[in-house]
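[Q] Does anyone have a clean structure-token version of this?
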Amino acid sequence: MATEVQLLTIALQHAGLRLDSFLASQLTTISRTRAQRAIADGDILVNEHVVKPSYRLCDGDQIEIDLPEPPPVELVPEAIPLNIVHEDDDLIIVNKPAGMVVHPGAGVDSGTLAHALVYHFNLLSGTAGRIRPGIVHRLDKETSGLLVVAKNDLAHERLSDQFRDRQVFKRYIALVYGRMSKERDDIEARIGRSRHNRTRMAVLRGGAGRTAHTIFEVARRYQDFTLLNVQIKTGRTHQIRVHLAHIGHPVVGDSSYGGGRENSIRDTAIRRAVQSLGRHFLHSAELALNHPRTGERLEFAVPLPEDLAALLAVVGERDQR
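[A] Here you go.
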């Protein structure tokens, strides 16, 4: 969730200044410390590259600022049902439905997972701020499946460390267009804001953007589709969807990165089923992590939701004809 992307061009009189100092002096809503954190997180780029806060500006540099939406005054609890897979004193594992945004942001100030969490649970970590109580990581709005929530700051810090150190295992199930030729492959391609549409992400070349690593294995091939098991080693925005579209196999139902592929589906029944799905076929099916207090390895799995299972049944049935 972000505000509209800001683009600044450095004038000659600002050449030689540190990036973080320049931003703190030019943007009244951001401190130097906040600027340093945003630069480190890749929310602020120079000439489409991640740089250090100490970077010295040059005449003509292009600065791209994509900061999170400022928090609302109050996060009001909402009685939204949640599918709780696991709960203990330190964490909660939620099976998020498609259509639910994880936390408030641009144009979304109600109906989120965060609103539901503050209704159902008295204590949640405050590490991620008021609008993201307990939120350690995110899933896209239309992606369903497993997500971990921290109930205290210690759990949040240790879970975040596991994500950063790539100790968390996540398996997604994706149905993509076309028949994959490889049984397994790695996609390592940098991701950043699209140069043509700033609301979307894209694979960028020449060192621009942030490193991203996706691994997929074929679970089943159909005549015009492939079912994949997908792992991500990094957690970039829209990573799986962008990477799979980049190699010519976009996720079925993805209106942002699918390029209108549903209109070219030859089988009428499958085409109608995809068009009526109303979401992309991406589900967080497995999650494994170390318990933040005991260190015990915890493993969780949830099946495909009914809408995705129904579409897969249609594809499989038509494939047998």
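[Q] Thanks! Anything notable?
[A] The helical segments are 19-26, 32-40, 113-120, 153-164, 239-246, 268-277, 306-319.
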